[in-house]
Amino acid sequence: MISHSFRSIDDPGLAEEYLRLVGDSDEYGAILVVNELLDAGVEPQRIMMDLIARTQARVGELWAENVWSVAREHAATAISERALAAVAARITVPPTRGRITIACVDGEWHALPVRLLCEMLRLDGWRTDFLGASVPGPHLVSHLHQTGPDAVALSCMIATRLPRAHAAITACRSAGIPVIAGGRGFGPGGRYAQHLGADAWAASAEEAVRRLARNWPPHSADPQLSAFLGDEEYTHVVRHRGTLISTAMDTLMRTYPRMRGYNTRQMDATTEDMTHIVDFLASALYLSETQIFTDFVTWTAAVLEARGVPAVALRVGLEAVRAQLHDFPTAVAMLNAGAQLVK
User: Fold this and answer.
1) Strand runs (DSSP E) across the chain, as ranges?
2) Residue 84 CB contacts under 8 Å (≥ 6 apart), including other chains
3) Which ranges carry the B12-binding domain (predicted)?
């Protein structure tokens, strides 16, 4: 139960109180807060972005800092989804702009950001088809042929999904539907979105609403920008992914003595980390963008430090993958760039 009534989105203590509610899995309290704000005349868009979205970003930070567990983060996300649904249920806007399909690319499971986008676009007068998380490319294309939308909004939060994002963007444009991309997986400023053939990119739901409201569809991107991605080094890493991971784990066991005392949970977490090293390397090779890999290493080092894992473990992991790719100069250069960031 919340401790007091909020009349404004700018009320002192609102963000802290709402974070406490989602952190305690208090669905009733969270929904009561958003309803009180709506009753007080606060615009639903501000509740969605200034409260729900901002709190969700903080939830992610608390997980990365090892303050909240994965379970608590998932539970809080579920409460945010329910609060968003409560806001959406209160507001009805007739569609006047057109129809848009909204989806996460195949393998992308962070659905709340696109759900927020869906509701923001609906409030702006769009007819929205929300397909949710991890939509396989063929299913997406089938939906486009059935419905003929004016645009597709694709979300990619993790850079390892970029090759699949490229496939989805290519399929959408082949169907004659322009694509607006979003999500931090497309890199700082969306630098990888155009490279993958997207017609536009937006840094936030508000920016996407503005972008779609004017001069849409935009001038089509040059198809040659994305025609030839993924070389022999990328192909080798993807084709030998399992071997790269298992061999690196064997090397870690021999060269990092502390790992011999790991329990099952710690071993599973280490395997997951090694998998991420290989998958982020593959995406960096696919686009020939070293920053994809170095950004991942910087983020991973901070996450591992928060969990008490010494930097040497990450460095040994990078070296274990590099040792298997000595005949592939671009991959080696990317791994070296990552290793230089690990103090």
Assistant:
1) 98-105, 126-135, 151-155, 179-182, 200-202
2) 48, 52, 112, 115, 116, 119
3) 97-223
Two structure tokens written together for 338: 């990552």
CATH 1.50.40.10 fits 232-339, yes or no: no
Query: pLDDT digits over 245-269, tens only?
Result: 999 999 998 988 888 888 998 899 8
Name the token pair of 203: 């840094």
Distant-in-sequence contacts of 309-314, Cβ < 8 A, 24+ apart: 310/258, 311/342, 311/343, 312/256, 313/252, 313/256, 313/258, 313/259, 313/270, 314/273, 314/342
* pTM for this prediction: 0.89
Could you give the dihedral angle defined by the CA atoms of residues 194, 196, 198 and 204, in that order, rounded to the nearest 10 degrees?
A: -70
Cα torsion angle, 181, 280, 293, 54, sign: positive
What CATH number is given for 98-226 in this structure? 3.40.50.280
In the chain, where are the structural domains located? 14-90, 98-226, 232-339
SS3 342: coil
CATH of 14-90, one of 3.40.50.2300, 3.40.30.10, 1.10.1240.10, 2.60.40.10: 1.10.1240.10
Is 80 exceeded by the pLDDT of residue 227? no
* Band (2; pLDDT cuts 50, 70, 90): very low
Mean pLDDT of 55-59: 96
Round to whole Å and give the CA distance between 126 and 107.
26
Closest CA to 234 of 293, 183, 296, 182: 293
Q: Residue 294: is its pLDDT beyond 50? A: yes
> Is 225's pLDDT higher than 70?
no
